Amino acid sequence: MQNYICATCGTQHAASEQPPERCAICEDERQYVGWNGQQWTTLDELRTKHSNEIRADLGLTGIGTRPSFAIGQRALLIPSAEGNVLWDCITVIDDDTVAAVRRLGGLRGIAISHPHYYACMVEWAEAFDATIYLNAADRQWVMRPDDRIEFWSGDAKPLWDGMTLIRTGGHFSGGQVLLWPQGADGRGALFAGDLLMVGQDRRWVSFMYSFPNYIPLPASEVDRVAGAVEPFEFDRIYGAWWERNVMSDGKAVVRRSAERYKLALTGRLGSG
Ligand SMILES: [Zn+2]
Ligand SMILES: [Zn+2]
């Protein structure tokens, strides 16, 4: 039996004798099946070709795979005296990574924005005896169910040390972001995954149903995502890739980005 991993989205599946027939995450219109058809790999195979890079990213420790694998997101370690949290997850986990994260205090929790970054979350949770926090609305996208996953319902879930998970919806119905009040030297940091996608200019965010297939969200959903984070104070927004972060003024960035998006939807953006 093997826990096969989809080579396009990096999601590890429940153990099976043969590779699964399909990856539901990739067949969904928010992702895509690779151009050479559905391909599978395993963690052992990935470890022969990839390793993880652990380095600072805007004051935090980031963990990303080199060379890049699947969607290419990097995870972030949020430090807390009451137990560190891994924000978002990556597929590759190896002995060097586990040792490095242990030196930083290990993990108490793993919180993941949405199914595209579920990756090898169960492997990570086992390695650190950590709990995985996911919103129940995305339960159907968990390809490797496990007792370490704690599903929460509602609009917000407090973790510890002031950290709060906020359900935004939008890109995924159960999409969640994490608010860390101590972030950005006490001005607050929002960990956004791609529920609020940090743009290349790092001064705006965007909102999409599908990024790879360019499918936008309606105004009502954009308002819902922006409205979900509106009650919270934050200055920085950490995006899903290395250094894709909004350095400051994050709250105003979300407000004006939602307004700009709706201008675009109604044909009122730009000079024609
Ligand atoms: Zn996949
Ligand atoms: Zn996504």
Strand order of the largest sheet: 3-4-5-6-7-8-9
Give the count of helical stretches: 7
Quaternary state reads single chain
Q: What Rg is obtained from the alpha carbons, in whole angstroms?
A: 18 Å
Low-confidence stretches: none
Q: How far is the N terminus from the C terminus?
A: 58 Å
Strand pairing plus helix content: what structural class?
alpha+beta
* H and E string: EHEHEEEEHEHEEEEEHEEEEEHEEH
Give the distinct bound molecules: zinc ion
Name the beta content range: 15-25%
Q: What is the residue-mean pLDDT, rounded to a whole number?
A: 97
General description of the model:
- The protein is of the alpha+beta class and 272 residues long.
- The chain is 22% helix and 24% strand.
- It is built from seven helices and 19 strands.
- It has helices spanning 24-27, 43-49, 95-103, 121-128, 183-186, 219-229, 250-265; strands at 5-6, 40-41, 51-57, 60-66, 75-78, 85-87, 109-111, 131-135, 149-152, 156-158, 164-167, 176-180, 189-191, 197-198, 205-206, 208-210, 215-216, 236-238, 245-246.
- The strands form five sheets. A seven-stranded mixed beta sheet has the order 3-4-5-6-7-8-9. The chain has a six-stranded mixed beta sheet with strand order 10-11-12-13-18-19.
- Helix 6 runs antiparallel to helix 7.
- The radius of gyration is 18 Å and the shape is globular.
- It starts with a strand and ends in a 7-residue tail after the last helix.
- The model has no long low-confidence stretch (mean pLDDT 97).
- It binds zinc ion (2 copies).
- One zinc ion binds at residues 114, 116, 171, 194, 211.
- One zinc ion (ZN) binds at residues 6, 8-9, 11, 23, 25-26.
